[in-house]
Amino acid sequence: MQIQVRVSEEGVLRHQRHAFTDRYTLVTELLQNARRAGATRIDIDFDEMSGRLRVSDDGCGIEDFQTLLTFHESGWDEATRQEESPFGIGFSRCLYAATRCVVMSRGRRIDFDTRAALAREPVDVFESGVPASRAGRGTTVELHGVELPDLAGRIGALCAGFPVAVTCNGHVLDRPWAADRLALQATPIGGLWLCGTPDGWSSRDTAVFLQGLCVLRPFDPRPGRINVLHLDPRQFMARLPDRDKLIDEDEQRRRIDATLGAAWRAVLEQAKARLPAAEFVATYHAAMQAWGHLDLLNDVDVLPAAALATIGGYPCRDDCGDCDCLRPVDVVPTRDAIERGQATLVVLDDLDDDTAACWMLARARGFLVLDVRALHFGHWVFAHVRFQRGQQVRLRPKGVHARSRLDGRQARAEVVLCSSVQVTVGDDTAEIGGEGVLHGSTLYIPDGEGSGEPVRQVCDFTDEHGHFLEDDLDADRQALAGLIGRLRCADPGDALASLLRELRPERFPALHGRRFLVTVGADRGGHRVELVA
To answer: In terms of residue numbers, what domain contains 367?
Structure first.
């Protein structure tokens, strides 16, 4: 017994209608046929009320009408088959999308009911009576019973990169990403237009087209702010039947990204050769960072401003509301100033229990914070950078006044009130006054700090979902401020008055008008209260 692969023609005809996922593929397939026929102009006319779609072109026309109704046999010449690998199923979309189909070309005409055609009933080809030599070029396809809602609103996007002039209901489409509208550069995989090459405003967002149809769509299609790539059809193939995605898309994306990266490399090398160093760095640093070409800066004496920042605000943990202590630098130090030690650059880890003191020291000393992501690891500046990671951190409070503990909603720490704090990291030392410093599980509060703001160094006040807990921050800030106030209150009368304000004894009518003798710390640490007659 032997078996072999067979094709059920009835099954193919019955299920082919479910192969297409987008109803607008009907239009793009007709556009593709016109382009392959050498058309220089395509006119689309659609009446949504009646469902009549008419597509006319000035191409070479149809030599054999049978090719229209032959599935998986394109009928194109050998050159087209080699160049574009047509599938031979495009026109079949018309059979499933319309109730009636009329095609006119080269002085001949067919007019048939699509249901009857799918039932494999013969379709007559009529002669128009006009010799083919006088009938003119081109083909007209007229479909009835078509549903294409909002075609007028979508046709612009469908034809944005199409290489042939297209009109829809008399309106000429812009086609802003068509190959004939852009100065494309040749690459190993197709024609490329890079955005941002004159001003450095590069983008990784790319509109990719194959045979004039978009196969990779940009996320933010702002004019002039995306790259445009027209792929070589001999190297790439779109997925059947809609042709809106590449086969092996992940692999092809890597090829595309590598090509764009190489194109940017060439642009940057040319800019580096012709521009002064300061202008080159200021213009193209963002592009070098985006496309992985930061090594071009390794031998340039000028540092990019984006690589440096000053600590302008009180250092807090990340994600703590809108608190951002880093500020752009006003003046970028020269290489000579850095090498002479006139400007100190430091690399800081994210602020936490172990690094908060490093941040406070760097702020007090006016160090510049270097973003290591903004430079290549081989850059000359790293020989002059201080890395705080692994450095011994020592804190010595001066003039300790009191010790207590803060147990807030989120912030919990030992609290030490002192005159000032001496912070030492490696060989660097600074004396901090007026602002709290966290180290380990201890919060050091120098004289002059009473706002409660240091709780922002203790925790970031975000929950497990990343939501900022503003109410908890306010409550813990007030709790720390209150604790500091109580610990600093040296006058007994002021201390008791502060306590009574918190307790609000006026809420108890039995206490009104009464006098008490209160002894604090009596009876083994307890308190004694006596009513005075």
So the answer is: 299-386
